[in-house]
Input
Amino acid sequence: MIIITQPHATEAQIERIVARVREFGLDVQISRGASRVIICVIGSAELAKEKPLAAMPGVEAVIPVLKPYKLAAYEFRGGASSIPIGNVKVGRTEHVALISGPCSVESQEQILSIAQTVKKAGATILRGGAFKPRTSPYSFQGLGEDGLRFLAHAREETGMPVITEIMDPRDLPTIEKYADCLQIGARNMQNFSLLKEVGRSRLPVLLKRGFSATLNDLIMSAEYILKEGNMNVLLCERGIRTFENAARYTLDLNAVPILKSRTHLPVVVDPTHGIGLREFVPQMALAAVAAGADALMIEVHDTPEIAKSDGEQALTPDIFEELIPRLRAVAQAVGRSL
Ligand code: PEP
Ligand code: MN
Output
């Protein structure tokens, strides 16, 4: 249930409304707009529904939310969220953000050189994994804290904020020392203890869709993070498993308009993992911008043939540079910039 206050309702009126809701044993999250306050009632609102909350001074409307998620719902914000990642804002603004970098951080030189390349081409946020979720325990697992240090060094040199994956809640304090945004990978989308832990972090969280998860599952996972108080969540479509096996995954671009209509959260598309084949990543990146993505996440490697992970899908610097003006043209065609 969402309670919308009248324009310029007084603080005392708002406090009385909140106190009344709490009397029913329910909790609230408050979102303040320019003139109205939106009070989101968390928990089963059955009890409160029976009471005439709508008649309380300062209340303009009481709207039942029938969806299983509340804090992620578009109605909760009554508009789209814009989320700061370091000095870059990502959201449904005119600008489409470009997140780029290698799959894994491999050395100080490697991450710095790729950071400089992608920045020059137009990227504004640097990505790179230091803790890698690999199918095989014998594959490269990431450089751990050294990788984080190299990422932070690349940020100092380039000014780009950095995003990196967290797999284990015990790593949070360490990652928080270095990163500007946490990534929850597809394989951990329903790791609920991890979701709760990052929900208590001050850092924004990019939540990737599990490859067998529905859009509703994805939003419910975001709800776990939001419920802990961290309102800075970005949703990321990165491809799902279908019966089609011509590509690594099937990039589900339906996700973009659907997530944007159901939630207020920014929607990021990762065409790299989505198709998994270098030669087709550019087409899917262009399609993602056309579909309304608020940001793209694209893997780039300067020597993909010796990359420690995901070399077959990384764009080379040349292909990446050549793609940027085409992305800009598509962004412009749909009323945005990049
Ligand atoms: C990645 O971003 O490198 C990654 C492992 O992504 P996903 O969790 O989507 O597979
Ligand atoms: Mn990868």
Residues 103, 129, 133, 185-187, 208, 238, 273 surround phosphoenolpyruvate (ligand 1) (CB under 6 Å).
